[in-house]
UniProtKB/TrEMBL annotation:
This is Matrin-type domain-containing protein. Residues 179-210 form the Matrin-type domain. The lineage of its organism: Eukaryota, Metazoa, Spiralia, Gnathifera, Rotifera. It is found in: Nucleus. It comes from Didymodactylos carnosus. Keywords: Metal-binding, mRNA processing, mRNA splicing, Nucleus, Zinc, Zinc-finger. One of its GO terms (biological process) is mRNA splicing, via spliceosome. GO terms for cellular component: spliceosomal complex. PROSITE patterns: ZF_MATRIN. GO terms for molecular function: RNA binding; zinc ion binding. InterPro entries: Matrin/U1-C_Znf_C2H2, RNA_Proc_DNA_Dmg_Regulator, SDE2/SF3A3_SAP, SF3a60/Prp9_C.
Length: 254
């Protein structure tokens, strides 16, 4: 099967001195034989064997000695030449436009290339600085690990592996916030989860017991002693008002 490549359409000269028989020429394939025949102005149709024989017939001969029946007709050559010349003109026009655009944009191209090179140089320096910083940190970590200490400059909580947890996890759980509880002896709790959990733990229950106040759900989220005592007095007053008083009931019925 033939392909419509530029080589087959335009024609390319082939040195026939390297071939001793049409069979050797046939090994080049249909496209290459067609290209060589077009370069000589000879007919390029037919089977592989016909093309090889036609091309081999021109070996060592001048154009006058070659059988004229092997050449293409003048009308065909003229049409082909006209089409090729028109196509070459179009290509030449496009090339001239491209060269003109290159000339007009030469300053912008030079500035762009210089800017890119400057950015690449700056990026290379930054990467080297990052590599140096990373190497320094790794050296510090290795030194601290050798000394039995964990590198933890931000004082992050330790995970299950004995190493500091990631900083994003530290922020996610709100471990950067501390909550103070006066009832627990001004003990500080790290993060909202630990703060909410401590109301049911022994430390808070012991503080409430020392104040003489039961550690019930009414006192959830109360951390000041003054607030706890005020709420306890209010609850006791409400209970006294709700309590059944037989003397008052008797007075009403009389």
């Amino acid at each position: 099967k033939e392909t419509g490549g530029a080589l087959a359409k335009g024609g390319a000269y082939l040195d026939l001195n390297a071939f001793s028989s049409p069979e050797e020429l046939a090994s080049l394939g249909l496209d290459r034989l067609k290209s060589a025949l077009l370069a000589l102005g000879m007919k390029c149709g037919g089977t592989l064997e016909e093309r090889a024989k036609r091309l081999f017939a021109a070996k060592g001969k001048s154009f006058e000695d070659i059988d004229q029946s092997l050449f293409m007709k003048e009308t065909t050559k003229g049409k082909r030449g006209t089409k090729e010349s028109e196509r070459n003109k179009e290509i030449a026009g496009l090339e001239s436009q491209i060269y003109r655009l290159v000339e007009l944009l030469s300053e912008q191209r030079a500035s762009t290339i210089e800017n890119i090179r400057r950015k690449q140089a700056r990026a290379g320096e930054e990467n080297e600085d990052d590599d140096d910083a990373t190497a320094a940190i790794s050296d510090d970590e290795s030194d601290t690990e050798e000394d039995g200490l964990v590198y933890n400059p931000k004082n992050l909580p330790l995970g299950w592996d004995g190493k500091p947890i990631p900083y994003w996890l530290y922020k996610l759980h709100g471990l950067n916030m501390y909550y103070n509880c006066e009832i627990c002896g001004n003990h500080k709790y790290r993060g909202p989860k630990a703060f909410q959990r401590h109301f049911a733990e022994w430390r808070h229950a012991h503080g409430m017991r020392c104040l003489g106040i039961p550690n019930t759900a009414h006192f959830a989220n109360i951390v000041l002693i003054e607030d706890a005592i005020a709420l306890w007095n209010k609850l006791k007053h409400n209970k006294d008002d709700e309590r059944w008083k037989p003397d008052m009931e008797v007075g009403l019925f009389e």
